[in-house]
Design brief:
The chain has a domain of about 220 residues: Rossmann fold (3-Layer(aba) Sandwich). The strands form four sheets. A six-stranded mixed beta sheet has the order 3-4-14-9-10-13, with helices on both faces. A five-stranded parallel beta sheet has the order 8-5-6-7-15, sandwiched between helices. The chain has a two-stranded antiparallel ribbon with strand order 1-2. It is about 45% helix and about 15% strand. The chain has about 500 residues and is α/β, with parallel strands linked by helices. Strand 6, helix 8 and strand 7 form a beta-alpha-beta unit.
Length: about 500
């Protein structure tokens, strides 16, 4: 299997090259030439394996140029007891009849991005070795909150790499910000951006597409790559946990062979739900992929109408990792459902760049509707979902998971479809402690408290243990204080790299 660009100008690229490059030279995203199929015999084999061995088995299909030892090295380096505080790595918990929560936040930064960003540095360095790369790889990241810390944690002190993370200075939670600006490592750099996530993401894409700048880096034996989900090496490990969740439901007798499951994903950049789409195309019997949005509901409108239109106000919400209006990974979905029609995909992406919108037309739209359903959730509904889930189920959820819970309730009311459902939980409730505290603590208890004080009150009130990665965060030394305008991001990269 090789990889090609979603925009059609690049093909015949090995998995190692695709991971190392991050984004295709034509501005498109690397996609596999075909999606492998898992047979019933393979599903039965996976039932006998733990998470690590399932990951090794599944990654093999997409990494044909990696040998068994290399894949084992990557998987065992990422998914171990030093990095994850639950031996099941991505455990399922029953929330109600036919409703299961998959907890994806047991890694070192308490967010689902760890599931991919703990293994990506191993995939990246192995790819560099396999391709004979001698240049230093500069990992350039825009984050809406969680990717940044997870990428910093994963790439900290990894030889042959440096990592630069840009985040919206006023667009992340205090915990997310403190996690990033206190990050240690000889090769890490962090900068706040005066703008929102879309501004930061557009700035990063502009740097990637600046051929003169990339040439100047090449002359200094440096190459840009990405740890965002535009990098196939970031998206691929996410496919694993959806397949693993389905296998867990089979082994527990919740579903039988052929029984469908629905999957509910809080969604901003479309990467997480896209991984579930790939799992469905591999053979996991998924009924509906339920896209849960906050009030930045550009994806909900697209799934309802076939028109993608980012020309709308940008809303700052209490689920900030989803505060996104340009969902990069939707490009990969369009590539697949148009049967790899790169001309159409390129035209739509050009329309998006020039006018901020595009219309996929009735045939493609029907394909979207066949697989996806979507609704969105206000901040008030998010708080209510946290409170209700705690009071009724005694289960504490963060603001993003609460969006998924709320939208799933709307799906049930709208369709009556009570197929077994997996709701993806993307962060520890303590990453967004002030909002969670506002939902479950008395108003007089939280009045006048700082966000970090609220974390300890939340732990005391609920009896839910705060993750060690967050405890004491307020006392860690701030190491990164750069804040820049969007138009100055390239200059900030040059300064970090000591380029005159």
């Amino acid at each position: 299997m090789n990889y090609i660009s979603s925009r059609g100008q690049v093909s015949g690229v090995s998995a190692a090259e695709a991971i190392k490059k991050g984004i295709a030279p034509d501005g498109g995203l690397f996609v596999p030439e075909y999606i492998p199929t898992l047979t019933e015999d393979i599903f039965r084999t996976l039932e006998e394996l733990n998470y690590q061995d399932r990951a090794r088995h599944i990654l093999t299909y997409y990494l044909p140029d990696f040998n068994e030892q290399e894949i084992r090295y990557c998987v065992e380096g990422a998914y171990n007891s030093n990095n994850f505080d639950n031996s099941r790595i991505a455990p399922l918990n029953q929330l109600g009849e036919k409703i299961y929560i998959q907890e994806l936040w047991h890694g070192p930064t308490c967010a689902f991005k760890d599931m991919a960003l703990q293994i990506l540095p191993y995939l990246m360095t192995t790819s560099m070795n396999k391709t004979g790369e001698t240049s230093e790889i500069i990992i350039l990241v825009a984050t809406s909150g969680d990717t940044g810390k997870a990428a910093l944690e994963g790439f900290s002190n990894v030889d042959g790499t440096r990592i630069i993370v840009f985040f919206p200075d006023q667009g992340v939670s205090e915990v997310q910000k403190r996690q990033m600006v206190t990050q240690e490592g000889k090769n890490v750099h962090v900068a706040g951006v005066l703008g929102n996530f879309d501004d930061a993401q557009s700035g990063v894409k502009s740097i990637f597409s600046n051929q003169d700048y990339n040439q100047s880096l090449a002359e200094r034996r440096m190459k840009l790559s990405s740890a965002n989900s535009i990098n196939w090496g970031r998206l691929l490990p996410q496919i694993v946990y959806y397949i693993s969740a389905y296998i867990d439901l089979r082994t527990e007798g919740v579903v039988k062979t052929g029984d469908k499951v629905n999957i509910v994903v809080p969604t901003g950049n479309f990467g997480n739900i896209l991984a579930a789409y790939y799992a469905s195309k591999m053979g996991v019997p998924i009924g509906k992929l339920i896209c849960a949005a906050n009030t930045n509901n550009v994806l909900t409108d697209f799934i309802r109408t076939g028109i993608y239109d980012r020309n709308r106000p940008f809303e700052k919400t209490i689920s900030p990792s989803m505060d996104i209006l340009i969902s990069s990974n939707l490009e990969r979905l369009l590539f697949e459902i148009t049967d790899h029609d790169t001309r159409k995909v390129s035209a739509w992406m050009e329309e998006l760049k020039n006018s901020g919108s595009y219309n996929v037309g009735p045939e493609v739209y029907q394909e979207v509707v066949n697989g996806f359903w979507s609704d969105y959730c206000s901040d008030e509904e998010t708080i209510a979902a946290i409170r209700h889930t705690w009071e009724e189920k005694h289960y504490l959820i963060d603001t993003h998971t609460a969006v998924a819970v709320n939208v799933y309730d709307k799906y049930l009311q709208s369709t009556g479809d009570d197929t077994v459902a997996i709701i993806v939980s993307t962060a520890s409730p303590f990453k967004f402690g002030s909002s969670v505290a506002a939902a479950v603590l008395p108003p007089e208890t939280i009045a006048g408290r700082t966000e970090f004080e609220l974390l300890y009150l939340l732990e005391e009130h609920t009896g839910v243990k705060m993750p060690d990665a967050i405890r004491g965060l307020e006392d860690r030394k701030v190491l990164h204080q750069t804040v820049c305008k969007v138009e100055d991001m390239e200059a900030a990269v040059s300064e970090f790299l000591d380029i005159k």
